[in-house]
Amino acid sequence: MKKSHTNLNKSSAAALCVALVGVCLVGGAQAQVVVRGKDVPVEITVTDIEADAAVLAPEVRHHALSDSLKIQAAAQGLYVRAALAEEAKKQNLAQSPIAQARLKQAEQKVLMDLLLENVEKTKAPTEADLLKYAQTEYKLNPERFKVPAEKEASHILILGDTPEAQKRINELYQELEKGADFGELAFANSQDQRSAARYGSLGYFAKGKMVPEFEEALDALKDKGAYSKPFKTPFGWHIVRLDDVREAGKLPFDEVKTDLMEAGKVAAIKDLRDNLIQKAAQANTPDEAAIEALAAENKKLADQGRQK
Q: What are the protein's GO molecular function terms (predicted)?
């Protein structure tokens, strides 16, 4: 396994103090209720959960929302936030100028993000433009596509060096031995979130990119599709599968086309977003006197705090 990983703690989804699932009206359309408060008139809907997860990359979002425990944890978090917000309203905590400014800024942040997302949707380069970019990049930078010998692998990871972790990886190994699909087991059970979202795939990597224990287990596999017995690394317990072997040389265009097109799209969208932000940043006139007065006031407060 590579020398970094992403942990996941499911314990926050232990229990939900909510009523049964129902249906409510949100924005004029029906949205399924997944959490309904007992004492506070707050409901968390599917729309709320999807909105909360919208900031995640698609593959990470789909992976997280395919697990009922993670959905419950997200819904519980949203419910707690909404319930406490209702209590804040009861206490009139939103009435001060600072509170109003914070609420306004939170709304502005969401609206700015929506505008930038809309730029991505409406002004992204066409497929034809991206293909042309990929072809040009491949032709002009041949050295970039020369690679050493690499292997492609997938794995299942159970974090930790505990009897429970070892027991769990052995259970998953027995499921594989009975014919279970490796990718589906990784998707549902691996605690390496990044690769789990890709059904366990780690992609291609060269010798020396993984910790020694991982490479030793992978090197012992000779046939594509073969998988190891459970083994331990500093990250926890693994099962690794050999997916492909690629000799050193220049990658064919068809193999890098999708990645190049995606890179071109990301770069183009970044330019669009940066230009929009820069244009807005230039369309203002600072009030130097007000800025200096605020700085002086806070320097005075800092000095007073220092003297205490």
A: peptidyl-prolyl cis-trans isomerase activity
In whole angstroms, give the CA distance from residue 204 to residue 248: 12
d(CA 277, CA 166): 50
CA dihedral 161, 164, 165, 169 (to 10 degrees): 140
CA distances from 186 to 20, 30, 63, 272 (A): 31, 34, 11, 37
The number of CA neighbours under 13 Å toward the Cβ of 50 is: 6
Residues 209, 164: contact at Cβ < 8 Å?
A: no
What is the per-residue DSSP string for 132-193?
Answer: HHHHHHHHH-GGGGEE--EEEEEEEEEESSSHHHHHHHHHHHHHHHTT--HHHHHHHH-S-H
Whole-angstrom Cα distance, residue 274 to residue 268?
A: 10
Rounded to 10 degrees, the C-alpha dihedral 222/227/230/233 comes to: 60
| Model confidence, pTM | 0.68
Residue with tokens 């998988």: 227
Amino acid present at 137? E
Strand 150-159, strand 236-246: pairing = antiparallel
Query: Could you tell me the CA-to-CA distances from 264 to 117, 125, 186, 259, 272 in Å, in that order?
Result: 17, 9, 31, 9, 12
The predicted structure's pLDDT at residue 1: 56
Residues of the chain with CATH 3.10.50.40: 149-247
Domain at 149-247, CATH class: alpha beta
pLDDT digits (tens, 9 = 90+) for 14-29: 333 333 334 344 344 5
Pair 199, 186: CB distance under 8 Å: yes
**Confidence label for 307 from pLDDT (cuts 50, 70 and 90):** confident
Question: What is the total residue count of the chain?
Answer: 308
The share of the chain scoring above pLDDT 90, in percent, equals 81
Q: Please say whether the beta carbons of 303 and 295 come within 8 A.
A: no
